[in-house]
Amino acid sequence: MSSTPAHRRQPSLSNPRVQRTRTRILTIARELLPEVGPTGLTYALLAERADVTRQTLYRHWPNRTALLFDLMLDGPEIGDYPEPSSDVRAAVTAWLRSLRAGATIPAMRTALLAVLAQAEHHPDSAQALARIGGDRRAALNDVIKPSGVQIDADEYTLLYGPVLARLLLDRGPITDEFIDSVVAQWLGALRCTGAVPHGDY
Questions:
Q1: pTM assigned to the model
Q2: Using one digit for the tens of pLDDT, what is the confidence trace for 84-97?
Q3: How far apart are CA 36 and CA 106, in angstroms?
Q4: Of 12, 44, 64, 81, most Cβ neighbours within 10 A?
């Protein structure tokens, strides 16, 4: 028998009922977030709307930052994630379009802005963002692996940075033409450093 009090035990995500509850809570949180904002998304409100106890929320997410991260990580699938390809230009273009598709979801954008703001003052949030960035870079490297090209953290930032700047700072449209321009400039920079060979890219 576990010595951990029931209210402090982590829910078992292998339990289908627990997983359904978690999915329902995240769905409702995603609907509420654009309406009430990060500070308005209290556990009291979310518990009421999801018809669960606040204790249940704390067992899944010990703090609101953890909830916001899961809202980003467990978001709905939008568009197609690119398949591995030997064509670097096509692969990274598809990857940026997938990033754009996710950013069209109001809750995802709101959660990202809130986590970025918190990361400035909360080391845990900053570390979690760094882990997410590392995971995303690893996923992109898997996509372009057939080409023989692999990118480091700086080269990864050069790729997605302009898109996030357009999204979060300029608040302008991320058009296909904009993405094509970002990819062309990125490939040009990588050719100069030798990270991507000269050729058809």
A1: 0.71
A2: 999 999 999 999 99
A3: 12
A4: 64
